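Recall that a protein's primary structure is simply its ordered list of amino acids. Everything else, from secondary elements to tertiary packing, is in principle encoded there. The following example makes that idea concrete.
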Amino acid sequence: MPHLHDPLMIVTDLDGSLLDHHTYSWQPAERWLTLLQQQDIPLVICTSKTAAEVIPLQQQLGFPGAPFIAENGALVQIDNAQGEMVRHHAGKNYVEICDCLRRLQQQYQFRFTGFADFTEKELANITGLPLANVALARMREASEALVWRDTEEQFTLFQQQLEQESLMLVQGGRFWHVMPKGSGKGEALRWLLQNMTTAGGKRFITVGLGDGPNDAPMLDSVDYAVVIKGYSKFPVELTRQDERHVYQTMEYGPTGWSEGLDYFISQE
């Protein structure tokens, strides 16, 4: 098991993991957040949220400037060798994706509504977020979130057409996410780790935490995976076989998050 003094990196989902599913509170994880800060262990947020949502949250959590993965892995931000912040996009940008979606909608009469089409008030009603947060959630750069309102047959056709446009669909909690093909939380984390090393040039030992099906690629890519008990009706299905390096928590949200780190990381 890794030790607190090892070159660790914590990679975490937000909603339902580090943040409580209902209240968005991270208070039960406060003890561990303080320990990570004291040991200079990077906390890499890996989320469906936008960069505009992640950056102020990093400040609040006490990890400003840390690398992060946003929009389900379609966007990664790291420091480059010169110490400058670099954003990596996996493929088409937001404007190109929205243009493509409008074209397909006109051509095949697909019935769906994207973030670009909702008003902020409508999105606030759907997500339960305050209007100020909705504005940040709409500042998308590399993926579009949408509500599907059509038949299963049309959905299959939609997926096929997206494939031809080098795009794919990922299921989130409330929305389907249209993203560049070959992107995702796992691919984004692999890219990040290829472009980051510790100050001493060692590779990071990664501990990943998530509660939803879209976290599975990230949890398959880390050294130690914490599957947090969640509310999704879809299970988190991992492909990895090293069961000793996977822990399923008994508790939900940030309490389960702390439980997972207690299980894997030795503080002796």
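The first strand starts at residue 8 and ends at 12. The radius of gyration is 18 Å.
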